[in-house]
Amino acid sequence: MSTQADIRHDWRPDEIQALFDLPFLDLLLRAQTLHRRYHAPNTVQISTLLSIKTGACPEDCKYCPQSIRYDTGVEREALMDCDAVVDAARAARDAGATRFCMGAAWRSPKGKDLVRVAEMISEVKALGLETCATLGMLDEQQAQTLRDAGLDYYNHNVDTSEDFYGEIITTRTFQDRLDTLERVRAAGMSVCCGGIVGMGETVSDRASMLRTLANLPEHPQSVPINQLVQVPGTPLAGSEAVNPIDFVRTIAVARILMPASHVRLSAGRTDMSDETQALCFMAGANSIFAGDRLLTTGNPEADHDQALFRRLGLRPEGAHEQPPRDMQAVALER
């Protein structure tokens, strides 16, 4: 049984560091126990992400192949037509996705482009899908326009800790990101916000990033945890790969800090073994992106995901769901 006592917004740095320092199996047990108080066991929410406008982004995010500042081979592409986006959304729905996310490589959307994106949102919403968009920074009016079009979620990651942020991005501030999140919440949309692991940050940086999210006035409804995808041509290509156990720890701590949120195992899954992904699900991840592309980087093929789900006994969220049960109740049944 879930309890609001688990939902905190006052986490101290030492408390979060103590979670990272727990023995690995103790951490997973705590995360999975809490996970089952808020979510149906063995279910995973499926989202699909489509790049509706690719390349030529003016930002200098060191991980991103879409930045105009780096030679990564990503070609500039104009904003897609609405019909093409709707066709892609329909295919995603038919493949089992319940949420369709649209991403555009902008610093901030222009007025005429926002009108076109609003049309896409309305049309995708009419298919019965949840809608999500990531379009860069928003002002109050832009956020309201998206909400009026029917947008359910807005993604705007903080990426890393405030202290490490300047090592990764200089063209917008950490506070800029927090301001956009506040405008999204004020407009009545749900927030999708997480970060990236493996950019050279310390464990303390990971703890600080998660503390920022957990101490927001309202927890992000979706928390994507990305493993850096090292794209040739970006400044972070050649970085030391994150240890899989350390990545799973980040998932588990995110679950403990934000127990009611969906924690999404996001970018980087192509570089993860099935065993690492299984540990992530044990640690409380209960959302993934399905489809062969994440904006411009690869993603496991649908057949592979389906085979992994069968091996682990997982099912898409909404498919014959069972009510959440904590591990103590499971033990009592045995």
Describe the structure.
- The structure is a single chain.
- With 334 residues, this protein is α/β, with parallel strands linked by helices.
- The protein is built from twelve helices and twelve strands.
- The strands form two sheets. Strands 1, 2, 3, 4, 5, 6, 7, 8, 9 and 12 form a ten-stranded parallel β-sheet that branches. The chain has a two-stranded antiparallel sheet with strand order 10-11.
- Strand 3 (130-134), helix 5 (140-149) and strand 4 (153-155) form a beta-alpha-beta unit.
- Helix 8 (203-214) packs parallel to helix 9 (244-257).
- The longest helix has 15 residues, at 24-38.
- It is globular, with a radius of gyration of 19 Å.
- It starts with 12 loop residues before the first helix and ends with a helix.
- Residues 320-334 have low confidence and may be disordered.
Brief overview:
The protein has helices at 13-20, 24-38, 82-94, 111-125, 140-149, 162-165, 174-186, 203-214, 244-257, 274-282, 302-312, 327-333; strands at 43-53, 99-104, 130-134, 153-155, 190-192, 195-197, 222-227, 262-265, 287-289, 293-294, 297-298, 315-316. It has 334 residues and is an alpha/beta fold.
Structural class: alpha/beta
Low-confidence stretches: 320-334
Radius of gyration: 19 Å
Strand residue percentage? 5-15%
- Biggest sheet descriptor: 10 strands, parallel
Q: How do the SSEs run, as a string of H and E? A: HHEHEHEHEHHEEHEHEHEEEHEH
Principal-axis shape equals globular
| Total of DSSP H or I helical runs spanning 4+ residues | 12
Write down how many β-strands occur, each being a DSSP E stretch of 2 or more residues: 12
N/C terminus separation:
18 Å
Oligomeric state as shown? single chain
